[in-house]
Amino acid sequence: MTVSFSTLDLNLLRVFDAIMEERSVLRASQRVFLSQSAVSHSLARLREMLDDELFVRTAAGMQPTARALAMAPLVRDALKTLEAAVGPPKFDPGSSTKKFTIAANDFTTTIVAPHLLGILGAEAPHIDIVIRPVTRIDLAEQIDLGRIDAAIGTFSPAPQRFKSSLLFEYDDVLIAPASRSLGTMTIEKLSRLSIVVVSFGGEQEGAVDGFISERGLARRSEMYDRSAFERAFSAAERVPRIAVSLPHFLAVPALLEGPDLVAIVPRPLAEAFAREHAISICELPYPTTRLEVRSLWHERHEGDASQEWLHGILRRATAHLRTGSVKGGPT
């Protein structure tokens, strides 16, 4: 009898595989969640189609025929292949050669990347990371098009199509060369200094209140709390001079060698600078808003095992910033 695969009920092969494994119709029925009579009926249909007994009932259980023994490994492999095809996709970071693209500014790259690369080296040595600048691109468009897997930054409430996760919070501090003793900073002392700040965008790029908005997604571009600064000096006789406004943080330590220059920077970055440069950290004489740095991705990635792994390791790479000794305590 010739069997047409196009008309074959694949459930019959599931039953065959279960009987082969259990050597019992009763246990096979429990394995495939069918009644015993349903399993017997399926076996009868398969016997008729293949013109072979397939299993012979003995005192030791259902013993396979030669035809069944020949079929068994092929059926098992086929069922595993089908299960893999229709089941949730699996992701093995240890063997994967995927490439993830992350959008981040130089502040978050400096803080996050070393810890992220440490995790990759230990757990996913063949995975590559591409870090694209979060500035000078239409970030929302790039995420919508799937060209960016995750963006790291401070965002206003995002459109519903984007998902996000908190990585860490920070406030602002003042940094200066370690050779310059600032002591306890006051409004009057700060008013006599020249300040370096960082802004990733300006009014010419459509920045409003320190945020640039694209396609409903607003990201922070002004990297110091201008509102808190202006409030602090609203009644002061003298206002500090914003002497230098930079589009990145990279040059800040070198610029501080200038006379009377200090910089307002995020606290985690100040701590990173102090580990690499002769930098002192000073508390500002006014409070600044604690801002959230979040990872952000498109909702279509929900349920993708590799993407969920990426979001997980970003959280792990910033765990020390959520529990570390920052002003205001753990978050």
Strand content: 15-25%
Q: In total, how many beta strands?
A: 14
Task: Indicate the radius of gyration in whole angstroms.
Answer: 31 Å
Largest sheet features: 5 strands, mixed
Instruction: Identify low-pLDDT runs.
Output: 325-331
If classified by CATH, what would the architecture of the largest domain be?
Answer: 3-Layer(aba) Sandwich
Question: Any idea of the CATH topology of the largest domain?
Answer: D-Maltodextrin-Binding Protein, domain 2
Helix fraction, binned, reads 25-40%
Which structural class matches the secondary elements? alpha/beta
- Separation, N- and C-terminal Cα atoms: 71 Å
Mean pLDDT: 87
Walkthrough of the structure:
The strands form four sheets. A five-stranded mixed beta sheet has the order 4-3-5-14-6. It is α/β, with parallel strands linked by helices and 331 residues long. β9 and β10 (217-220) form a beta hairpin. α1 crosses α2 (25-32) and α1 packs across α4 (66-86). It folds into three domains: 5-86, Winged helix-like DNA-binding domain superfamily/Winged helix DNA-binding domain (Arc Repressor Mutant, subunit A), CATH 1.10.10.10; 99-169 and 292-323, Periplasmic binding protein-like II (D-Maltodextrin-Binding Protein, domain 2, 3-Layer(aba) Sandwich); 172-289, 3-Layer(aba) Sandwich (D-Maltodextrin-Binding Protein, domain 2), CATH 3.40.190.10. Helix content is 38%, strand content 23%.
